[in-house]
Design brief:
By secondary structure, the protein is α/β, with parallel strands linked by helices. It is built from twelve helices and twelve strands. The radius of gyration is 21 Å and the shape is globular.
């Protein structure tokens, strides 16, 4: 633990000095970024801290961020409701959502053909694997939208991949550019989260710094550090009773009413929101795109 802390500090100091202090902590309100913030402030007490409020955060995260008086809040030009109404629902995955959108709204015949059939419009685009419904699985890089999700391109509602860019990335990147500052981000080394996080923030380069990624920090390390320094994270990270129900701790946080990956979950994360915030849950489930509710769209993915 001591070694990892010192290595993370060194990465942070190197980046801070290289940028002459023109840096900030990208703070999500989650446990990883809180540990990063704690380490950073132990070296640079006045380092700037920025929270991008996606309007789709867990209420516990919002309440927790409010406790940090130094945090600068930035906001998107559109809220989650407006993104859904204009662009569609975030369903399946970011990659497949983009393919669904391009299959449905593509301007070029070649793009549409690739999304429907793969680059070659030929069985050679298919691997020997089958999905859970017995359908063919395209080879990596074939460009084809998996057959099991192609029906979504024919639905009345739209599916979008644009949420992350509009709600999270654009506001914080705009602020950083206006203030000529570069972010320090709590990207973790855990393999299960790495690909998703890199798709959101981009690979490590001279425009950003990932102290944890480069020093091998894991989920276990985050909790060990919190114990050492008596840090209490947002309440959603702990088991508790709410509204007469037992609510299991969140393993990770993010946009709570995002449908990406929900079909893979054993415990539907939205069911938990129904218990925690029933009024908000109903409001979100009744969001509409082209006259179709989020509840109706989700039912087609989860059937």
């Amino acid at each position: 633990m001591k070694e990892k802390i010192e290595l993370a500090k060194k990465k942070l100091i190197d980046f801070y000095q290289k940028e002459n202090g023109n840096v900030f902590i990208s703070f999500s309100g989650g446990k990883d970024s809180e540990v990063l913030l704690h380490i950073a402030k132990s070296i640079y007490p006045n380092i700037r801290v920025v929270f991008s409020n996606t309007t789709n955060e867990d209420k516990d995260i919002i309440e927790h961020v409010k406790k940090f008086k130094e945090v600068i809040w930035v906001h998107p030009v559109m809220n989650f409701t407006q993104v859904v109404e204009k662009h569609g629902f975030p369903l399946v995955s970011k990659d497949n959502a983009q393919k669904i959108y391009e299959l449905k709204h593509g301007k070029k015949d070649r793009t549409i053909a690739i999304r429907r059939y793969g680059y070659q419009n030929h069985p050679d685009c298919m691997s020997d694997k089958k999905d859970k419904d017995g359908g063919p699985v395209p080879k990596p890089g074939s460009g084809m939208l998996p057959i099991k999700w192609q029906f979504l391109a024919d639905e009345e509602f739209d599916v979008t991949h644009k949420c992350c860019q509009i709600l999270k990335k654009d506001p914080i990147e705009k602020w950083a550019k206006e203030n000529n500052l570069k972010p320090i981000i709590a990207l973790m080394a855990d393999e299960g989260k790495l690909r998703k996080q890199l798709s959101l923030y981009g690979s490590d380069d001279d425009k950003k710094s990932y102290p944890f990624l480069k020093t091998g920090w894991s989920e276990k390390d985050i909790w060990e550090y919190a114990k050492l320094h008596n840090i209490r994270f947002a309440e959603c990270y702990y088991d508790r009773e709410m509204n007469g129900h037992f609510i299991k701790a969140e393993l990770r946080t993010g946009c709570v009413f995002c449908g990406f990956g929900i079909h893979l979950e054993k415990e539907n994360r939205l069911d938990k929101q129904k218990l925690k915030t029933p009024k908000r849950y109903e409001k979100m489930m009744n969001l509409k795109n082209n006259g179709i509710t989020f509840r109706e769209a989700l039912s087609k993915v989860l059937r």
